[in-house]
Amino acid sequence: MLTSLIVALDLQRITLLCQDWGGPTGLAQAATMPERFERLTIMNTWLHHPAYEYSAGIRNWNRNWHEGGLFAREKPDLGLLMTLSAGFLPRETAFPHLVNGTLPDPWPSEAARAMHEAYMAPFKGLPDSAYNGARRFPLSIPMDSYDNGNGAAQTLHYRLLLDWQKPVHFIWGCADDVFTEDWGVEWARRMNASFDGIPDAGHFLQNTHGSEVADILLRRISEEAG
Asked: What is the pLDDT of residues 28-51, one digit of tens each?
């Protein structure tokens, strides 16, 4: 679908920003249609390949979406998970509310309340089946099988992009326990790319450090011309 959108709009000179599952979906486009892309910006993501070592953080995330896991429940509160990831709620506050189907009252901050509201808005009034996409993504991580997450294609795209000849900039949340700083540094080295780590940013750095990400990318683009 993403390929069809890019082709239908005839997008050219694309600057890709990708994070989490945006890596496998977005980088697939660059690997298969490189002529349409001007540069890649890679943030806290991965492409599956046999040598990749999945972190304890991502294995725990996957495990909790299986039957009996913490998130395997009717209408899981995705907004609480996002506010937790952004650092707006501590684990000891978020998890009891997630289990009990309740919300903080009062919220610890307006930012926490607003983020929760924004992430839950698309599900308002919808049945439990509306959450099936969110459920499927964690279960699609190809940790133990190429059958999940199109792992074979991810491996192909990873290998193709190691020979990428255009600018690549890594911007990384270094406090992420899912896609670690060590992995980001190593991947950037393999692609002969720049690497900018944000020490206190976690997994969803675009949520918490958006302005800093933009400033880093604009600086890196200005350096390309130099």
From this structure: 999 999 999 999 999 999 999 999
Angle at 166 between CA 184 and CA 49, to 5 degrees: 40
Dist. CA 131–CA 82, nearest whole Å: 15
Check if the beta carbon of residue 178 is closer than 8 Å to that of residue 50: no
CA distance 34 to 134: 29
Summarize pLDDT for 48-91 with one digit per residue, the tens: 999 999 999 999 999 999 999 999 999 999 999 999 998 899 99
Positive/negative CA dihedral, 124, 137, 172, 11: negative
Q: Which residues contact 91 (CB under 8 A, 6 or more apart)?
A: 84
Q: Work out the widest C-alpha separation in the chain, in whole angstroms.
A: 55
Q: Which residue has the tokens 């393999």?
A: 190
Question: Do β-strands 14-20 and 194-198 pair in parallel, antiparallel, or remain unpaired?
Answer: unpaired
User: Any idea where the domains of the chain sit in the sequence?
Assistant: 2-54+149-224, 71-139
Alpha-carbon distance 97 to 202, whole Å? Answer: 22
Q: Could you tell me the pTM of the whole model?
A: 0.94
- State the fold for domain 2-54+149-224: Rossmann fold (3.40.50)
| Sequence-distant (≥ 6) Cβ neighbours of residue 86 within 8 angstroms | 115, 202, 204, 207, 208
d(CA 203, CA 43): 9
For 167-223, how does the pLDDT look when each residue is reduced to its tens digit (9 = 90+)? 999 999 999 999 999 999 999 999 999 999 999 999 999 999 999 999 999 999 999
